[in-house]
Write a structure and sequence with these properties.
single chain, mainly alpha, Cytochrome Bc1 Complex, Chain D, domain 2, 11 helices, about 30% helix
Length: about 300
């Protein structure tokens, strides 16, 4: 089920905001979206021409990857999981540490990153015959067109009461109440676009007391503010059943593992978010939450 938007040249699926933000210098127009689509699959944008953006952001996996952490040219390994690109047009900050404020800037970073595509903008633009600005605007436009909605949850909320099973409906109630998931996963895209510390990057020392260390400093690397150490951006839950493994480090292989992690109160550390605490879910409640999360997968329009 799609709804047309007069001001935009793409149709917005049921469940999403009709307004897709775009800067004045990069309105959503069909020719630019199509140019971006071609560039997204163009292997010339990597050093050895072995990779395209789609190599890590696989359309068949809601534009994510099955690998726990990113793998770039020459088998170079990154340090974080590849985020799904669905509905990023609604985003307010990008990358796990929110270090970039616009899609136009974000889409150029992986091309230049030595651990990803490892190509300078000068080399990239020479290969494809476009300016850096044109490359940026086209790729950003295409990413804005990647939308996921019309999931069973959306149809249920639209009045189709049989779209969710009884267990999934119980999971929805838990999501909103006992599970406290809505403290971070809110709105049509199921993310507050903010950063939180769940303890996933913390490793205790093994001895008594709170001693330990962060394997990844998260937002701290950007702000150098101590309270930001270990904080990462809330990902969307749209298509979450297709985007495993989970967390910024890909350390949780299944939705069951993710629910268990939060049920147990995350991992205590000096900066643990105030909303993260043990939930006391029963096995049946854990299953219901997983069932509800699976209902957030619909059709990816690309």
């Amino acid at each position: 089920m799609l709804r047309s938007v007069m001001a935009v040249v793409i149709a917005v699926p049921l469940g999403l905001d009709l307004y897709i933000p775009a800067p004045e210098n990069n309105p959503l127009v069909r020719t630019r979206i199509e140019a971006g689509r071609r560039l997204f699959h163009d292997r010339r944008l990597s050093r050895d021409q072995s990779m395209a953006c789609a190599s890590c952001h696989d359309p068949a996996r809601a534009f994510s990857t099955a690998k726990p952490i990113s793998v770039g040219v020459f088998g170079r390994q990154g340090t974080r999981n590849v985020p799904a690109l669905i509905n990023r047009g609604y985003g307010r900050a990008f990358f796990w540490d929110a270090r970039v404020a616009t899609l136009e800037e974000q889409v150029l970073r992986p091309i230049q990153d030595p651990d990803e595509m490892d190509l300078t903008l000068s080399e990239a633009t020479t290969r494809i015959g476009l300016s850096a600005d044109e490359l940026s605007l086209a790729l950003a436009s295409y990413v804005r067109s990647i939308l996921s909605g019309n999931a069973p949850f959306d149809r249920y909320m639209n009045g189709e009461r049989q779209a969710l099973s009884a267990e999934q409906q119980r999971g929805l109630t838990l999501f909103r109440t006992k599970g406290n998931c809505v403290s971070c996963h809110v709105g049509p895209n199921f993310t507050d676009e903010r950063l939180h510390n769940t303890g996933i990057a913390w490793r205790p020392s093994g001895g008594p007391g709170p001693a330990g260390r962060y394997l990844d400093d998260g937002r701290f690397a950007v702000t150098r503010a101590e309270q930001d150490r270990g904080r990462f951006k809330t990902p969307t839950l749209r298509e979450v059943s297709r985007t495993s493994p989970y967390m910024h480090d890909g350390s949780k292989a299944t939705l069951e593992e993710v629910v268990t992690f939060y049920d147990e109160g995350g991992r205590p550390n000096p900066n643990l978010d105030i909303e993260i605490r043990p939930l006391g879910l029963t096995p049946a409640e854990r299953r219901a939450l997983v069932g509800f999360l699976q209902s957030l997968s619909g059709r990816v329009h690309r």
